[in-house]
Amino acid sequence: MTAVDRELKGAPGVTMDDRGPALSLTDVTVRFGGITALQGVSLTLEWGEVRGLIGPNGAGKTTLFDVISGLRMPDTGQVMLAGENVTRRSSIYRARRGLRRTFQRVQAFGWLSVEDNVLSALEWRGGGGGLAADLLSLRSRRRRERERRERVAEVLELCGLTAIRGELAGSLPIGLARMMELARAIVDHPRVLLLDEPTSGLDETEAARLGERIQAIRRDESCAVLLVEHDVGFVMKHCDRIVVLDLGQVLTVGEPHEVQSNAAVRAAYLGED
Ligand SMILES: Nc1ncnc2c1ncn2[C@@H]1O[C@H](COP(=O)(O)OP(=O)(O)OP(=O)(O)O)[C@@H](O)[C@H]1O
Ligand SMILES: [Mg+2]
Question: What is the homologous superfamily of the domain 3-98+189-268 according to CATH?
Answer without folding.
Answer: P-loop containing nucleotide triphosphate hydrolases (3.40.50.300)
